Amino acid sequence: MARRAAYLHGTDRRAMKPLAVTAFTTTNPAGIGNAATLAALREGRTGLVPNTLDWAPIACWVGQVPGAARIALPEALRDYDCANTRLALLALEQDGFRDAVARAVQRVGAHRVGVFLGTTTSGIRSTEIAYAHRNPDGSLPADFRYDTCHNMDATTELVRRFLGVSGPSLTISTACSSSAKVFAAAERYLRAGLVDAAVVGGVDTLCQTTLYGFNALQLVSEDVCRPYDAARKGLTIGEAGGFALLEDSEAALQLLGYGETCDAHHMSTPHPEGAGARLAMIGALEAASLDANAIDYVNLHGTASPANDLAEGRAVHDLFGDRVPCSSTKGVTGHTLGAAGITEAVISLLALEAGFRPGSPTTRSVDEATRCRFEPTGAEAKLQRVMSNSFGFGGNNCALVFGRAS
Amino acid sequence: MRVHVRSIGVLAPGLPGWEAAQPVVRGERALEMAPLTPPVPRCLPAAERRRSSPTARLAIAVAEQAIDASAIPAAEMEMVFAAAEAAGEITHQLCEVLATTREISPTVFHNSVHNAPLGYLSIAMGAKLSGTSVCRGRWSFANGLVCAALQAQAAQRPVLFVCYDSPMPMPLQAVCAMVDPTAVAMVLAPDRIDAVASASLEIVQADVENEWPAWIPASWHANPSARGLAALGAFASPHGTVRVPFAPGQALEIRC
Question: Where is the Beta-ketoacyl synthase-like N-terminal domain (chain B) (predicted)?
């Protein structure tokens, strides 16, 4: 029993040494690259549009990344060609990210750089199309590639090859917390000395699986999503790709902490009081050695599903009271599922860098029952530390804390 | 990097548990292939047993073996689940429906996420610490083990590591040749206390991909978790050493 007690009450939550975020980029429905995304946030402009997809005629809105479909993969990597990898390559080309990785490779060596990506559905759109074109004997079309498109790891391996890096790498697929948890996993690889630099990120693209799946769960709104709105009716699904480069060095922006938990409550419904979410936020604060008072803004998970916003808002209020302004940027980008973590991590970094606290332009009337200090209108604000929340199916929670180097 | 294994669980045709598997993985007794009885995890309430996929039940049942043998409550463990495929039977059901009526069942949809087995186990056992579901294609065993070992080290807690594969239905089996269910689970501890094995893990260059031990049937070669079964020989032998594929041109050397 003594041994067990040590695990429960011991010094297991050791504070984390801040990690430098030396480069970052987001490509999402509101903007290709950081500048376009920040402009959309500042203007309070949504990137979401009424759905006109002929392969998923559902009465809803969607968030698409224009231009991603036109990306051509290098000849040697053609086997990986699918919607997900095209968006991944478009995202890698923005904000000098690829060059930043190349510089890191020069500094530490290709074998010391790892790639840690999150996704929920990888290139499943290719499998959906293959099933729609099965041969008369039931077999799949001869040109269908499963391992290099559908497998959850396909985009990670493509990105490794494209960037020319060979360090330990991993794909995390924990639904909508996937590309937040990559920061936590990468920190452990860096801390243990397995890599000197980590490319973290995530990609998810629109597919029938998620559009029809969330629709079957009655979680998709016919209207644009309105996070924390009293009249919110569900989420708007978007697609996105994004990356960040983590190193144990000096930089203006840092990853300060992370917390990961499971609800142990329900496969597709959050704990009503957000108990698991609350513990993830506490874990992130502890890892960062910070009090709740030190956080200047919380970028909420805020999917605009009635149950999620209520549970999260209450958990956030319980920790941060009425003091900390919060918002969800999903009304701008949509819920980009496995890419939501990296999208909102990058938005948090942009907010810190630009001194701008994003709002929630599609929210009209805040639901008082969510309790936390939800600010629908963005504002110029000096931000020192920001928390970003990501929660997923299976009750999988992750909270991240980013800050400006002091 | 070191890993301390507190307990082991095994499920595969002819390998119903760690006790039975030990002489086989050590090469002392031949594997007698017998179809694996579909596992029924005790921890799942009847409704969840019906709702969960066969893949989830396989992963949870093998996890249950390791949890029981560790004498540590699951609620005190972090979790790392590694699999190349989420659940082939669910992918097939989903894509068939999407190609026809598009009327997806909500249960099939939530069963389709890669972390569904982890979610079911967490709910059934009240496990509320960190839970991570990972994939690294055919290198999923070695990379999942490293991820779990780092977590045990960082959190100074026990970590439940599970790696599993279930058969792919046709027509997916033609492009992803998993035909048998195989699964391995380990409880990794941050210290040596009560360990059944302690090993050092090292990533090494390997120009040629490691050969399979003779006892592993060729029909398991498409299963990344079978690389875990192949590695168990080292865990079950004093000073056992084994290499498992880690990445193109790299192997993970496990030295007990």
Answer: 37-193
Using one digit for the tens of pLDDT, what is the confidence trace for B45-74?
A: 999 999 999 999 999 999 999 999 999 999
Bridge partners (DSSP) listed for residue A235: A220
Which neighbouring-strand residues pair with B81?
B133, B162
Tokens matching residue A276? 């698991």
Average pLDDT of B121-127?
97
B256: contact with A, CB 8 A cutoff: no
Residues of A in Cβ contact (< 8 Å) with B134? 170-173, 185
What is the reported pLDDT for B210?
Answer: 81
pLDDT tens for each residue of A195-208: 999 999 999 999 99
In chain B, the number of structural domains is 1
Instruction: Report the distance separating Cα B240 and Cα A328, nearest Å.
Output: 52
Chain B residue with the nearest C-alpha to that of A186:
B147
% chain B with pLDDT above 70: 100
First vs last C-alpha separation in chain B? 12
Cα(B76)–Cα(B61) distance, integer angstroms: 18
Domain coverage including residue B31: 2-255
Residue pair A175/A391 in contact (Cβ under 8 Å)? The answer is no
B residues 9..48 contacting A (CB < 8 A): none
The whole-number pLDDT of residue A10 equals 38
Closest residue in chain B to residue A181, using alpha carbons only: B132
Q: Which of A301, A317, A326, A372 is catalytic?
A: A301
* A226-236 pLDDT tens trace: 999 999 999 99
**Predicted pLDDT of residue B146:** 98
The active-site residue, picked from A150, A271, A317, A335, is A335
Residue B27, min C-alpha distance to chain A (Å):
31
- Quick one: A254 exposed, middle or buried, by C-beta within 10 A (0-12, 13-18, 19+)? buried
* Interface pTM, i.e. ipTM: 0.98
The first and second tokens of residue A194, run together, are 């397995």
Low-confidence ranges of chain A (pLDDT < 50): 1-12
Considering only alpha carbons, which residue of chain B is nearest residue A399? B130
Q: Where residue B163 sits, what CATH number does that domain have?
A: 3.40.47.10
pTM above 0.95, yes or no: yes
CB B188 within 8 Å of CB B77: no
For A135, A176, B240, the CA distances from B77, given in Å and listed in that order, are 47, 22, 27
Distance from CA of A330 to the nearest CA of B (A): 21
- Does A393 sit within 8 Å of B76, measured CB to CB? no
